[in-house]
Design a protein that fits this description.
It contains 19 helices and no strands. By secondary structure, it is mostly helical.
Length: 476
């Protein structure tokens, strides 16, 4: 173990200790499974909703550029993730990496930020699934009673969102059965979802009207977030939420086969494929109808197909979109349970979270994540959850970008050589940090305040529990 000599808060974790602790996790995930995890989380409901929403509210036809900007910012960090994951393939991703290169308290801060992402993301996507399923049921004149149709956070007389609860429980049961079973279901759902995305592109392309691309970047409307670079930038900050799924790949790196090759290919490959699909779907959608037609439209892709005279494809898209949203819940619940496991493994949270069963599954951590996500979904509204996810993730992204400067000098010395090296070092990590910081400061102010409150709570947990029970401290 490396000790900086500057007090407990700067003590650095030993990679060998993480490796020994993670040996009980089964290495069952290859490149195919990692790509499915990444694409399943990134290409979730956002691909069928965000292009229309962002075009109408912020960017017009230039929504495709918003996706490109968000992809560039995410990509800068994804390169850093790929290098870290190939050198340090441990459960907990950024938490474990920061503990090794900066010290335990920095690892805790990064991990605490990601923990918010996972708890909130599961609640967010399950709430979105519920909203889409209720929309689907309403087409058959089926409406749920208010008491079980929405959570009390929505403020419309609801008590519990039974469909959101059901979605989380279904995924929890699936994960309970094991990683191999979950990966098989994930692969099947991702393939089905990608096929429907391609069908939308092909069918939608036949209904494109070139005049809808006129004034591709609309003029900025003073006093608003619409048009010009302001609109593209604001659109990118909203879209950024869709791209954070590659972190779920890194969180499962302890279960990867040949992680030095598997992790970079899974992380970078899923981001590239997702970006191509996002941009293409955006161009098709704004080409089919003028972007103003998508204002206040909760299901723009399905609506566009229906309006263009393709009802069967529209219904198919709606059904597959519902099934495909499970892939995002699976990815986030897998990643979140592995992070909680890592905290328990190292004594920063109660030890029962760091236990695995005889199949190598962290079931206690999965149970806590399931309960937490259900409670968060009941407390916060759908719109509040969206910005909260991005806030925690962006702070972790900034730490990973800066962490490369501490990782690179140790590679091939006390740490393994990477299977992938981030290009254009030392410029690219700095750009990644600045890009994530820029997106963070464009977020809603309420989300920033909530993020600071979450960090304050995290530091209290660390001071009064984690620092006293840390295995790193006991080893010292």
């Amino acid at each position: 173990m490396a000790n900086s000599g500057m007090g407990h808060w700067l003590k650095k974790a030993s990679p060998a200790a993480f490796e020994a602790s993670d040996k009980n996790l089964k290495k069952t995930l290859g490149v195919k499974e990692m790509l499915a995890l990444g694409l399943g989380t990134i290409v979730s409901t956002a691909i069928f909703t965000m292009p229309g929403i962002v075009a109408a509210k912020h960017a017009g036809p230039a929504v495709a550029l918003s996706f490109v900007v968000a992809a560039i910012v995410s990509g800068l960090t994804a390169f850093a993730y790929a290098e870290f994951a190939s050198v340090l393939p441990f459960a907990g991703s950024v938490y474990s990496w920061a503990s090794v290169v900066f010290g335990e308290v920095f690892g805790w801060i990064a991990g605490w930020a990601l923990l918010a992402e996972y708890f909130i993301a599961v609640a967010f996507v399950s709430s979105g699934w519920s909203a889409n399923f209720k929309l689907f049921l309403s087409s058959f004149d089926i409406d749920l009673p208010k008491a079980i149709g929405s959570s009390f956070a929505a403020g419309n007389g609801g008590f519990i969102d039974i469909l959101s609860l059901l979605a989380v429980l279904i995924v929890a049961v699936l994960l309970w059965k094991g990683t191999r079973t979950t990966a098989a279901v994930e692969n099947f759902l991702v393939v089905g979802k990608l096929l429907v995305v391609l069908i939308f592109i092909v069918v939608g392309a036949t209904a494109i009207h070139p005049q809808n691309y006129a004034h591709f970047i609309p003029a900025h409307v003073p006093g608003t977030d619409f048009g010009g670079w302001q609109g593209i930038s604001m659109g990118a900050s909203q879209i950024f939420l869709a791209y954070i799924g590659f972190d779920s790949i890194a969180a499962n790196s302890a279960e990867a086969k040949d992680p030095q090759k598997t992790m970079p290919r899974g992380i970078i490959g899923s981001l590239i494929i997702a970006t191509v699909l996002f941009v293409t779907v955006s161009l098709v959608m704004v080409g089919m109808f003028h972007y103003t037609r998508y204002a206040d439209n909760a299901a723009p892709a399905a609506w566009a197909l229906l309006e263009a005279g393709h009802p069967y494809v529209s219904n198919l898209l709606s059904v597959v979109a519902l099934a495909g949203m499970f892939t995002a819940i699976i990815g986030m619940m897998m990643a979140g349970s592995r992070l909680l496991y890592a905290f328990g493994r190292d004594g920063l949270l109660p030890a029962f979270l760091g236990k695995v069963d005889r199949k190598g599954l962290p079931k206690s951590a999965l149970l806590v994540l399931t309960i937490g996500a259900i409670l968060i979904g009941a407390i916060f509204s759908f719109n509040e959850l969206a910005d909260l996810i991005s806030a925690g993730t962006l702070i972790a992204f900034m730490m990973v970008s800066v962490g490369i400067y501490k990782l690179r000098p140790r590679e091939g010395k006390d740490l393994p050589n990477p299977g992938f090296k981030l290009p254009w070092y030392p410029v690219l990590p700095a750009l990644g940090f600045l890009g994530a910081a820029y997106i963070f400061f464009t977020l809603d102010r309420q989300a920033q305040v909530y993020a600071l409150g979450w960090f304050a709570l995290g530091l209290l947990v660390y001071a009064f529990y984690g620092a006293k029970h840390s295995k790193l401290e006991k080893d010292a």
